[in-house]
Design a protein that fits this description.
Rossmann fold; globular; 7-stranded mixed beta sheet; alpha/beta; 2 domains; 7 strands
Length: 213
């Protein structure tokens, strides 16, 4: 269903779908577009977490940086439900969570809004080669993110699977839109569920939008 939602306007894909399913996808897409337009009407920049899980990190981050508008997205509705409850309990007015895919979010983000920071923490590594296409970080993702990025926008990634970090580094090196940053200080504001599961084993990288592009 995730891929169908991402490509909900793809005519070839639509031909293989039941009309009622396709209609629901379009309705969900339109509802999300309207919601983002309303929520971000008076907002110029946001901090984004892709694959926010249960919202541990972003809720703590939003509480520590209340001058930033923070949005977390995940394709798992159950996780989004728990994340929303966390933000509500913390009474945070600057942290929101949405059930959607990264590429869909970028496509529907209002044109006046720019992304200042993007966090990707412990993404699904998809270790088998035939599944690499399912990884969040792809050439198209980096390009679309750059199109929506603010000046000097930063991308942060942390994983317990070192080959994923190497994969991301290679794609960034091949891109003319991003460049790797050194000696970046991470705000250790919270321990995520996956961070606990890996006993805090991690590899981290940071990149900044290339000012020349």
């Amino acid at each position: 269903m995730t891929k169908l939602f991402i490509n909900s306007t793809d005519p070839e894909l639509a031909k293989r779908m039941k009309p009622e399913v396709y209609q629901k996808i379009l309705e969900k897409r339109e509802a999300l577009k309207k919601m983002l337009a309303e929520k971000l009407a008076n907002t110029d920049t946001i901090t984004l977490e892709v694959g926010c899980g249960h919202g541990h990190f972003l809720t703590a981050y939003g509480e520590a940086f209340q001058d930033e508008t923070c949005i977390g997205i995940d394709v798992n509705r159950g996780r989004i439900y728990k994340a929303l409850r966390k933000a509500d309990r913390a009474k945070l007015g600057n942290v929101w969570f949405y059930d959607c895919d990264s590429m869909e979010f970028l496509a529907l983000l209002p044109k006046h809004v720019r992304i200042a920071k993007t966090w990707i923490l412990y993404p699904d590594p998809w270790p088998k080669k035939r599944h690499f296409k399912n990884r969040i970080v792809q050439t198209d993702f980096l390009s679309q993110l750059a199109d929506k990025a603010a000046e000097a926008s930063q991308l942060f990634l942390r994983s317990d699977y070192e080959p994923y970090l190497e994969w991301t580094q290679e794609l960034i090196d091949e891109s003319n839109r991003w460049q790797l940053e050194e000696d970046v200080i991470w705000p250790e504001v919270a321990v995520t569920v996956f961070q606990e599961l890996t006993k805090n084993k991690h590899y981290s990288l940071a990149a900044v939008l290339n000012p020349a592009k």
